[in-house]
Amino acid sequence: MADKNLLLVEGSADSHVVYHLAQHYHIQGRFAIRPKEGVEQLIATLDVELLASGLERLGIVVDADTDLAARWQSLRDALIRAGYTGLPADPTPQGTIVRQDGLPVVGIWIMPDNTLPAGMLEHFVGFLVPEEDRLWGRAGKCVEDIPEPDRRFPIQHQAKAHVHTWLAWQEEPGKPMGQAITKRYLDADALHARQFVEWLCQLFEL
Amino acid sequence: METLMLDSLVIRRFRAFRQLQIPRLGRVNLITGKNNVGKSCVLEALWLYARRGSPSLIWQLLGARDESVRPYTRAEGDTEEQTLAIKYLFYGRKDVRESFEAIEIGSLNFPKDLLSITVGWYAVQVGEGGRREFVLLQPEEYHTAENPTLGLRIQVGTQEMSVQRLDWYIERRLTRPPEPKGIQSVFVPADGLDYSQIGSLWDAVALTPLEEDVLASLRIITPEVERVNLVGDQDFGHRRIPTVKIAKQEGPLPLRSLGEGMNRMFGLALALVNAKDGLLLIDEVESGLHYSIQPDLWRLIFQVARRLNVQVFATTHSWDCIAAFQKAAQEDQKDQGLLIRLSEKAGEITATLFDERMLSIATREQIEVR
Fold first, then answer.
1. Domain that holds residue B342
2. How far is B83 from B100, CA to CA, in rounded Å?
3. A37 close to B (CB below 8 A)
């Protein structure tokens, strides 16, 4: 069925994190979350998504990856092609929201916080680790200390390895990031989580 | 893409549309949208455009919606009565005696060739040799003119097609103005064509190679169909009945005995091949057809429309029909298919277009296009 409020995310990990955060803030169910198969596909199908019948507000959550400016530019170009004119030159730190007469309201959140020049969902999750947590630093050091020949992941995925290492050391080892919110391993009331939820509420008028 | 009859469409002040703009059109266009957004009005507008605003078509369209109100009073000069029916054509059913705004229909890119329909005030003057002439009055003149009369004025660009007096109700019905030469067009209503329409469409293609296309359409539903013909004596009020010969069956069978779908298919195929070099307009294309055969119907339409240079406009509110159209459009890959969704926002009806690329994304990503 047609969704009035729709959030497009890069993949299922993102969709689970958002789902559990929304649950914590009692806004789950007020918008649909649709995982895509990566950021390229998300951008390539954006013009058609915006034409879905009955759609009023569309949110987009993507990673900055290695180049925030380039990611912003490609989103900006896609939205300009779809008829949006009032896009800022840079992403808004509190999350961008664009309104255009006759078109759905569009919100953009670039992980982790719309400002770091590089980063991804796992950096955002890292911000939700309680400050006093003693394992976080240890897990990070562990990952860092892996000698180059033994490291199987590309260096830009170090944050991923860090988060998942840390998750492996929790009471129930290996819970996915989303569930770690509900299990309260992660702090859903951390500043970054609050900012993200604030953006969701503004965008979807919750 | 080769040239189309209409590359784009603008409809102004006609029925549900204050102004509807469709910046591009495909060869095969499927129009969707909720009830009451004016899907059928688009077909009516296109038909009027093709027939160059034919007055007999105007009255036929009004009659089909029970809008051809007869004046009950014969009070001379009751201009409100005279314009009761024609008001239905105009956006917002305005008082056409005062507004003078024209209905306009045509290509967005050729604003000088629009069909326009207006109601105007005329003065009757006796010219040379006692002939009566109608002279169009300017808005500031008709209040002071002696016995002004209302007329329905039809133009294509600056060329005047006809003026019909609205006070001569009886005469209007008795005298049939000559049909203007327009674009070939065939309209298939939701409840199908009647026997006499079927008869004349059949006669136009019988014993020509186009018969094969009609047979191909029937074989989509019943592969065993070998031949088709119309049987009966059309004089004395008898109907000619579409009749088919089925493989391994002795005698001919009435087409209808094979189901209502066969009858609908026959009508659609006849309309399609008769719309050569013109427009085919189909209201509620899915009506009477099981969803499983709809992809084949669309394949046939895509293929024949291209070969015979037909531009097709069909309406639907069926999800199955859109899915079938998407499937055929995707296979076609010649960028002929266009889905047009009409929707209402703040009292204004707008069109959203999905070409074949967008349709395939929508199918894959399950994006709601209806």
1. 9-50+275-364
2. 13
3. no
Q: Are the beta carbons of B362 and A48 separated by less than 8 Å?
A: yes
Residue A18 in contact with residue A7, Cβ under 8 Å? yes
**pTM (2 d.p.):** 0.88
Interchain proximity A102–B354, CB inside 8 Å: no
Mutation test of the interface with chain A: which of B339, B360, B361, choosing the one with the most A Cβ atoms within 10 A?
B361
Report yes or no: B363 at the A interface, CB cutoff 8 Å. Answer: no
Contacts of A5 (CB under 8 A, 6+ apart): A30, A31, A32, A56, A57, A59, A204
Please report whether residue B61 resides in a domain.
Answer: yes
- A57 CB-near residues (< 8 Å, 6+ apart): A4, A5, A6, A31, A104, A105, A106, A107, A203, A204, A205
Per-residue pLDDT of chain A (206 residues; tens, 9 = 90+): 579 999 999 999 999 999 999 999 999 999 999 999 999 999 999 999 999 989 999 999 999 999 999 999 999 999 999 999 999 999 999 999 999 998 999 999 999 999 999 999 999 999 999 999 999 999 999 999 999 999 999 999 999 999 999 999 999 999 999 999 999 999 999 999 999 999 999 999 99
How close is the nearest chain B Cα to the Cα of A88, in Å? Answer: 26
Same domain for B76 and B44, yes or no, is no
CATH number at residue B42: 3.40.50
B42 plus B61 within the same structural domain: no
Chain B nearest-CA distance from A13, in A, is 18
Tell me if chain A has a CB within 8 Å of the CB of B341: yes
Total domain count for chain B? 2
Residue B236, in any domain of the structure:
no
Q: Is residue B283 part of a domain?
A: yes
Rounded to whole angstroms, the Cα distance separating B150 from B142 reads 10
B32 and B124 share a domain? no
A residues 38-57 near B, CB within 8 Å? 44-45, 47-49, 51-54
Nearest neighbour of B361 by CB, restricted to A1, A48, A102: A48
Q: Closest residue of B to A44, CA-based?
A: B361
Asked if residue B138 and residue B37 are part of one domain, the reply reads no
Is B105 found in the same domain as B30? no
